[in-house]
Amino acid sequence: MKRRNTLFGRLLVIFFGAAIAIVLAWMISHHYLADQPYQKSFNRNIITYTRLIADKMRFDPLAKTVIEKAAGVKIITNRQDIIKTIVDRNLHFKPLTSYISVTKPGLTFYVKYENNYEFFLIRVIDQHFHPEKIDAVIVALIIGLIILFLAYRKVQNIFKPMDRIQSMAIEYGKGRFDESLPVEGDGQLAQLTISINNLVVRIKSMLNAKRDLLLAIGHELKTPLARLRMQVEMLEGDNSALIENINEMKTIIDQLLEAEKVSHHSDLNKEKLDLNDFIKQYAFEKRIEVITDTAFELEFDPIRLDLAIKNIINNAKKYAPENSLIKLQLNTLNKELWVTDSGPGVEDETINKLTDAFYRPDESRCRDDGGVGLGLYLVQNIVDAHRAELLFINMKPGLRVVIKF
Fold this sequence. Notes:
The protein is α+β, with helices and mostly antiparallel strands. The protein has helices at residues 7-59, 63-71, 79-89, 131-173, 188-233, 240-262, 275-278, 302-319, 367-370, 375-385, and strands spanning 73-76, 94-95, 100-102, 108-115, 118-125, 271-274, 288-291, 297-300, 326-331, 336-340, 389-394, 399-404. It has 10 helices and 12 strands. The strands form 3 sheets. It has a 5-stranded antiparallel sheet. A 5-stranded mixed sheet has the order 7-9-10-12-11. Strands 6-8 form a two-stranded antiparallel sheet. Helix 1 (7-59) runs antiparallel to helix 4 (131-173) and helix 4 (131-173) packs parallel to helix 5 (188-233).
């Protein structure tokens, strides 16, 4: 890769380009707005004032003291003093006319007047304000700010692909590999984008292979489990414990397979339905209080969302006091669905682990009461597949599970 196509090289070019442009803007504005007008005005006034001083001193020899006091200058008329001043200060004069020369304007400069028999040197201390120089500074500052803004926009465009990379990285982190990053240009960011796309293809391939293997294993296990249950049921005596264990194994396999299916978003069968009408079906269940809201149309898979809501409700029933109500509420304004119980809640340090596979908040519970820890794991996969967010809020007492669409 050529050096200028690297991110560092492009930023370096912009930096030096902006710096050179600002320096040129300052030099040009200072030259045309300060130096040239100032020099012209300075030269014109010096010639005029020097002529007036020479005429005044020619007709009034005593005028020297009056002029020095009035104008705040020093007039040297003695030739030896003039030569000594020029030598000591190493003065270099620039001719303005045939008889008037000046040194470079500054805080202190000298005017030399030579006209036949007249010869004097004027020392001037410049204490005046020059607004034209301030104008040049203002113009140069404005141009510099414009250049910096253009440089900022250029850098922003260079880093614009980073925003897309960041947003897509978030999607990839949630297991959504449906889209690839667009490749722009041929610089380092383009190479990074290509590398990420290649990585995503490999990850997607490995996940698909893992998914196919898990689905195959799950289907293969269900057949011998069904045969085993039939054989156990045919045995004499009370075999309910064995049958229950077999059913539990089948439930684990079914939930794992379902979680793996919905993690692949293309398996969803979405329909545009009113979520407010959809949740009314749960009002007929025991211990469920449904609180509806205004209409809220949404595209979702009704079978998978029904499974998620039932898993949340069943989880609430396990921990809420007997005969207590579990509230299922739609908040249309915030696009949220709430399931709230009045149980003991969850410790804050473990609330983020609730959706981990096989995790149970209370390890002391037996599986008859606490389940195997796959219910909320399945819910998380269903919610992610709908591009929604699953939240847990301690209500003290109780726990509120929120699906935020």
